[in-house]
Amino acid sequence: MVAFLTGIDAATDWRLLEGFREFLAAKSGLGANLALPVLLVRIAYPGTGNDFGVAAMREESVQAVTVLFDELEAFLEAERLRDSK
How far is residue 52's CA from residue 60's CA, in Å, rounded to a whole number? Predict the structure, then answer.
């Protein structure tokens, strides 16, 4: 799902998800230098640690995809409210 969403972001000249990684990093307390899939898995499965295998295995899980869409909705709503001021 992240690859699909990244494709949509590319089609919008990288504007759709501008700030989304930073939004997730601020919300999770993790670094904005982490890749989007890693941030989403860490939010979906807190306490998993840094095990890359666990993260990769869960990247497309129902929980991680649910977190992706929930967080994307929250981000887009925050952007909409910010832009309406």
Answer: 14
- Specify the pLDDT at position 46: 81
Report domain extents, the chain.
Answer: 2-83
Q: Is the pLDDT of residue 71 over 90?
A: yes
Cα–Cα distance between 59 and 83 in angstroms, integer?
31
Residue 50: per-residue pLDDT: 62
Distance CA 77, CA 75 (A): 5
Largest CA distance in the chain: 43
Alpha helices in the chain (DSSP H): 2-11, 20-28, 36-44, 52-58, 62-83
